[in-house]
Amino acid sequence: MAEHALSGLRVLDLTHYIAGPFCTKLLAGHGAEVIKIERPDGGDGARRLGPFPGDVPHPEKSALFLYLNTSKKGITLNLKTATGRTLFRELVRQADVVVENFAPRVLPSLGLDYPALAELNPHIVLVSISNFGQTGPYRDYQAADITEFALSGHMNSFGDPQREPLKYGGAPSQYMAGLNAYYATMAAVFHAARTGEGQQVDVSIQEALTTAHGQALIQYEYTGTVARRSRGGMEFPCQDGPIHIVDQQPQQWARFTELIGQPELAQDPRFRTASDRREHAQELVEAVSVWTRQHTKEEVYHLAQGVRIPTSYPTSTADLLASAQLQARGFFIEIDHPATGPVTYPGAAYEMRGLSWVWGPAPQLGQHNVEVYCGRLGYSKADLVRLRQSNVI
Length: 393
Hints:
formyl-coa transferase, domain 3; Rossmann fold; alpha/beta; six-stranded parallel β-sheet
């Protein structure tokens, strides 16, 4: 059995920022050889996004870039030059997959769209990630993460109903699209291996999020009702922060009042049903907080779980790093990068029995130019000097 699930798979990575690099990070993690291709004049824009150690910007120290590009090789190449496009075509002939997240017009304008690549390599899989897909009236529209979150329907059903709509923190649409691109890539690779036929995979970030909103769509189709924002539970203060307790069924509510030593609350007409509890939320918080303030949020979490009461609490980064569950599973890994030294990274979201993950540092800009251009394509180091002087690499 191979040590890594994707050993032997050759991937050219034309992606930048988050969605595309997350897809190729997962491919590299499973052992695919991923060659990240960056512009010579600064590379992936994520290199200029923080956080940075000591809050000092440095193109080799961006936490975002280092996380999203683990285990890849890195070369520089200017596709705006004719020679750069020729070099890329040579690489395509030896590849299995190309992943890109340019605007849909870019690759065709360079003569590098799927039909052109398929002429060079009939089994090539081209994975294209864009805001709204390769077709449709929005195909050329730009979008920020909040745009995608809003246009997928999620903001209509997320957040406090008494407040303005919200999106999740961070860049959820980007990571969701990257995950979709990853498993779509694997389906296309399997198809190519079985039939010898390559194809273009069209990943829409809007559709990636809309797919995750399927329950609300089905609810509307079946019942005509529109999903609304709701709290879904209440927060109570603990010694070290809040804990969220989901609105309980009658039996759960009775068990909860026993747990906190106030069984009389189960019979209080203000709190008898979930609707009653929401209506008298402030009074309920005051009553329950007498107990929760005596405990840490971790203590309340385990006590409530012990009597089958659904609870959760917002974990800080420090909480995550100290998590007994994540530590027991070896989730966090340490990677030593030349520019930063050893740094702790989030690890794999799943494990495969008998197959290990690859964990290596993200490449420095152009780090593997000699290995790829000389070792793979047969160019000399003198050729690389000329290519560099011509702004090709």
